[in-house]
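Dear all,

This email documents one entry for the complex benchmark we are building for the journal club exercise. For each entry we list the sequence lines for every component of the assembly. Then comes the predicted three-dimensional structure of the complex as a token string, followed by one or two observations. Please use this as the template for your own entries, and keep the labels exactly as they appear.
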Amino acid sequence: MKNLFKTEDWWSVWIGLFVFVISLFTLGGVDLLGWGVKTNVWMDINKALGVASKNYVALPGLVSLIMTFLFMLIVTSVGAKFLGLDLRKFAIGFTFIFWIAYACWLLGSWAPIAVNTPADMQKFGLNFSLRLTGESGFIIALLVGLVIGNFFKGFAGYLKEATRPEWYIKTAIVILGAGLGVKAASSTGLATAVLFRGLCAIVEAYLIYWALVYFVSRRVFHFSSEWSAVLASGISVCGVSAAIATGGAIRARPVVPVMVASLVVIFAVVELIILPALAMEFLHTQPMVAGAWMGLAVKTDGAAVASGAITDALIRGRAAAEGINYQEGWMLMAATTTKVFIDMFIGIWAFVLAVIWTTVIDRKAGAAAAGAGEIWNRFPKFVIGYFLTFLVMLVIGLAAPTIMSQLSLASGEADVFRVLFFVLTFFSIGLVSDFRKLWAEGIGKLALVYLVCLFGFILWIGLAISFIFFHGLTPPLM
Amino acid sequence: MAHQMSVEKETAQAQSQAYEPLLPAEKQLIIWSLVIGVVLLGILIVVSYTFFPGSF
């Protein structure tokens, strides 16, 4: 029982649940968390900061940001106190880490870096964008962390007490469950046929893709089971979240999921640029196949939805030139639906992997099968927190669909903190990593696995599955 | 920090170490995933075209 308050694993559950429970007050009309900072894509820095809820719209963005920082500092400091850390050093370290990491996140949302749809390019008056999506902030945080960790080692050491990537990762995942629960519940309102066909994504991503990537990584590239499992989830399921959840579930070192997640973000950008153009050229007569393909092939939420939106626009444009006027948004819906189904099962897959790794693969050679107590001791507790937040939101959403907007608000407010814990994770990983050696010895090989699997079979199996389930379906005409 | 440095060294070494053959449990995981995946895919195709002919 004393371990409930003595490990980072449990404290990720407590902090995650604390944020989650506070967000739920919105269901009773009391908005306790809406002051959290929301980072907008920006050209004018004065418009970059907003608040999570319109109930706090009068609050200046900078005040919101400061309140968000203080809130996170306090809740993590409580955990740090129970974990026996040096509170003064932790508070100072956390303060530096938060502000530097947030600056990276803010930079990632700068329009010339983040914007990825023609509509947004027009909105911001841009002729060029790196199209990296707002998630590029993760990469920037990682790079800045690397620079500090490798070239300013004294400063990195000064931040050590608060450099705790595993803790931040797990807390973020507990909060993530709430958002995915709402997604799952709200999706039931979509067209049934598209929904059902979206289910095939689970079969493909979790069973076929995962097993193939794991096999290729282990057998062909000779990676360890630790690297292979995280790589398989990152490439085949849903990029960043899946890599991180799997890393936690199999107790991989934090550097493993973060390196994989970084690759995922980079490759998603490549897919975002190439796939919609390919879809317009070769799938314009099968628009729903094209949409579903984006959801199945592009591995981050932001890039997948952006790909769906671009594909929707490109194919409708081409069809219009031929006198066919499809209604807007159906290809995007196919992309989003398949992606949502993939997202929904991250926790279940993490649970399955946690059990398999705990009981079989990660068992010491010659040791007897782990008993229930040992399984419990080694089981990553944050997975429980994830499931709890996911199921609570799913059950409420299904039982009371009329309050879906409040649920979305609650999960959106909690998501502010999920994103920030993710950013802290990436920055912290950079701080503790000697990436020069990793780049020299490993990341190239990781990228090669990704390249081989993505272009070798993931894209084409995804296309085949999309064709099987969506061919012949066309969006309604205007 | 010393511990973290050693972790990084381990990571680099882990990627360049000799091949660890697939454990029987890993082989089973791969095979069962693929078998269940292919079977479920077949079932989903039948169910999809039978119960959700899907015209918008």
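Observations: The mean pLDDT of chain A is 84. Residues 103 and 141 of chain A are 8 Å apart (CA to CA).
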